[in-house]
Amino acid sequence: MTEPENNFDNKNQITWCPGCGNFSIIAALKNALKTLNYKPHDIVLAGDIGCSSKLTDYVEVNTFTGLHGRVIPLAQGIKLANHKLHVIAIGGDGGLFAEGGNHILHAARRNINITVIVNDNQVYALTKGQASPTSEKKFISGPTPEGTIENPINPLLVALASGATFIARGWAGDNTGLSEIFAQAISHDGFSIVDVLSPCVSFNKINTLEYYKSRVYKLVDDATYDKSDLTQAFEKVRLWGDHIPIGVIHEASGPTYEKQIPVLQKGTLVSQNNGLIDTEKLLDR
After folding, report:
1. What is the pTM of this model?
2. So what's the pLDDT on residue 274?
3. Cα distance between residue 256 and residue 234, in whole Å
4. CA-CA-CA-CA torsion sign (13, 176, 129, 47)
């Protein structure tokens, strides 16, 4: 009997605003998982709090929701407990680059084999439009009516400098290209991060779909670009403004964190008989 095709759909009602870039992200992710021929029980989607992390409610795979900004430590813990799982962390630019900014740095230098997908709408959308770490300077919001005075961070530059072995940028207006990037990131053996430019139709009236449509260009169309060349990667990752490169910016190989841990070479931690811990005695103490 032929196994029915899995679309990773479930029956939960999607509550994003009409026109939200998350619709493109979830469609691209589901298509990437289908392309890779993964099974739902082999995947864990980890999320935190925010519009982006609602995505974990709408995909028929294993999911786990944690604290705002702490999705990367959560994803790392899941990977170390069962390194045979494909672990994907979903978050927004607020949680991942503000509260969780330090976690990207350390996950990148460890080269742990997880994938981080960022819904980068350059605003705190779920809490009604405050400026985020990637908001443009002079971005006007409720708490900053005269505009922000801080320069936006470049998260992919931080990840690259920290040793990430797969760095990519996509955008919600190119669903096919985004799906291809996701498939490459998830199948990459090492830490991968994809920063998705995803317009917030409710609270960010600057970085709209049209704003990006006139600025993005695909790195795959540049025959001279070598994604393994670190010097070229640093040059491309810094570009912003009128010309924004999208696609795989850098890919390299290297030993993953979990492959360097001796106990994991015996099998997954969840499958090893490490003895039971008597929690009652611990609580008594």
Report:
1. 0.92
2. 66
3. 22
4. positive
CA 19 – CA 12 distance, rounded (Å): 18
Residue where the block lists tokens 């491309």:
236
CATH of domain 22-284: 3.40.50.970
pLDDT of residue 276: 65
Residues of the chain where predicted confidence (pLDDT) is lower than 50:
1-4
Question: Could you report the per-residue pLDDT of 64-112, keeping only the tens digit for each?
Answer: 999 999 999 999 999 999 999 999 999 999 999 998 989 999 999 999 9
Output the CA torsion sign for 44, 48, 53, 57: positive
Query: What's at 59, amino acid-wise?
Result: V
Encode burial over 200-215: b for 16+ CB neighbours within 10 A, e otherwise: bbbbbeebebeebeeb
Rounded CA-CA distance 82/132 in Å is 33
Amino acid at 84: K
Q: Tell me: the pLDDT tens digits for 259-276?
A: 999 999 989 988 886 666
The confidence score (pLDDT) of residue 3 equals 46
CB of 249 closer than 8 Å to CB of 231? no
Nearby residues of 86 by Cβ (< 8 Å), 6 or more positions away: 38, 42, 43, 44, 115, 186
CA distance 56 to 47: 6
Going by their DSSP bridges, the two strands 166-171 and 244-251 should be labelled as antiparallel
How far apart (Å, rounded) are the C-alpha atoms in residues 58 and 56?
A: 6
| Among 68, 46, 67, residue whose Cα is nearest residue 57 | 46
The residue assigned the tokens 């993953």 is 256
Strand partners, 218: 246
Whole-angstrom distance, CA of residue 128 vs CA of residue 118: 19
Please tell me the distance from the alpha carbon of residue 219 to that of residue 105, in angstroms, as a whole number.
25
Domain limits, the chain: 22-284
